[in-house]
Amino acid sequence: MIRVDLRSDTVTHPSPEMRQAMYEAELGDDVYGDDPTVNKLQERAAELLGKEAGLFVTSGTQGNLVSILSHARRGDEVLVGDQCHIMNNEAGGTMVLGSVVLYPIKTDDFGFLEPDIIKAAVKPRDYHKPPTRLLTLENTHNASSGRAINAEQMKAMADAGHEKGLSVHLDGARIFNAAVALDVPASDLTEHVDSATFCLSKGLSCPIGSVVVGSKDFIQEADRWRKMLGAGMRQVGIVAAAGLVALDTMIDRMQEDHDHARHMASRMAEMHGISVDPERIQTNIVRFGVPAHKGDEIAARLKEEGVYINGGDSDLRVVTHYGVSEQDYDFALVALDRVMIAIA
Ligand SMILES: Cc1ncc(COP(=O)(O)O)c(C=O)c1O
User: Fold this and answer.
1) Average confidence score pLDDT of the chain
2) pLDDT digits (tens, 9 = 90+) for 65-117
3) Which of 14, 20, 49, 94 has the fewest Cβ atoms nearer than 10 Å?
4) Longest C-alpha distance within the chain, in Å?
5) Ligand 1, residues 84, 142, 170: which to mutate, most atoms within 8 A of Cβ?
6) What span, in angstroms and rounded, lies between the C-alpha atoms of 304 and 335?
């Protein structure tokens, strides 16, 4: 039986308060724009991120997709970090459904894109080349162990894009983790981007959903794309209700997840065969190295011990989240230690 699931923060279940709010939610038909709970969530999300308007979408992937399709047209080019989720983990949706060209640029070890690299990647006006329209950023940066990118760095990247006439979109799936880790309002991190997506169904522990924020015009366009993608939803306030509770109760508590992640990394750094730098851990994702080709075996053995992580070759991760107790983390660490000795 699985006792601890550390595959992702997406495995979180809604809190009792969320379930109660879902049960009691005031509903309407959101395609007509008259679901009061959805409207409240969209307004609250926009306010928290310092933008004019918000749009409730089904997932982070859909939020990024409608955002990119709203900023760029068929045949346009979009600059993305080479280690970002949009490039590597969203099934190529923007390329297939939007016919835009994704152009990956080098990401440093901390999820940052050097402004000079951004500017150099923008194509000159030339009919041999796709017109570069959009830059996308990611914060926290999943592939670099959930690094939080600070406000100055966000401004430097966004300024580089704007200087070259690009729009800038932020994949802020875990932007509230970044804000908590850096101890700043989330709006400080979104101030210089034109649009942002954040997820309710990750560290914020909701069952479903993400919100896109931006200007009123942008959100109107994103709404049109959402409809086209078949995600005009009806009495969806029943889900949005959990989002409102999450924004009130789940943001500050993410510090606990970050503390648990740092603690896990410190203990893991002492284990046989694991390479991890606890000092790098700022939020809730701990990426760690194991001997080549051993990742799947480690994950399989851990599962037998009641601890669930994703497999891989030599790069694995654990993600801390709501619903896991101190004892569960200890249980997972003891099991991992045993497995690492066994496979040596
Ligand atoms: C950085 C980042 N962006 C976007 C997404 C996509 O979110 P969803 O799984 O809700 O489509 C994820 C999911 O893990 C993510 O980590």
Assistant:
1) 98
2) 999 999 999 999 999 999 999 999 999 999 999 999 999 999 999 999 999 99
3) 20
4) 61
5) 142
6) 10
What is the distance in A from the centroid of ligand 1 to the CA of 124? 32
What's the pLDDT at 101?
97
Q: Whose CA is nearest to atom 4 of ligand 1?
A: 60
CA–CA gap between residue 77 and residue 89 (Å, rounded): 18
- Within 8 A by CB and 6+ apart from 76, the residues are 100, 101, 130, 131, 132, 133, 134
What single DSSP character describes residue 122?
Answer: S
pLDDT number for residue 1: 87
Q: Read off the pTM.
A: 0.98
Where along the chain do its domains lie? 14-249, 253-343
Q: Decide: helix, strand or coil at residue 56.
A: strand
Region 16-37: mean pLDDT is 98
CATH number of 253-343: 3.90.1150.10
Q: How far apart are CA 213 and CA 48, in angstroms?
A: 10
Can you tell me which atom of ligand 1 is nearest the CA of 61? 11
Say if residue 140 is preceded by a cis peptide, omega within 30 of 0.
yes
- Determine the length of the chain: 344
The rounded Å distance from CA 46 to ligand 1 centre is 19
Name the pLDDT band for 248 (thresholds 50, 70, 90): very high
CA distance 228 to 25: 27
Closest approach atom of ligand 1 to CA 174: 1
Kindly report the CATH number that applies to the domain delimited by 14-249.
3.40.640.10
Between the alpha carbon of residue 1 and those of residues 112, 180, 299, the distances in Å are 40, 33, 14
Over range 206-231, report the average pLDDT.
98
What atom of ligand 1 comes closest to residue 171's alpha carbon?
3
Q: Which atom of ligand 1 is nearest to the CA of 140?
A: 1
Tell me the sheet residues that pair with 81. 105
The one-letter amino acid code at 111 reads G
Count CB neighbours of 286 within 10 A. 24
Residue nearest to atom 6 of ligand 1 (CA): 60
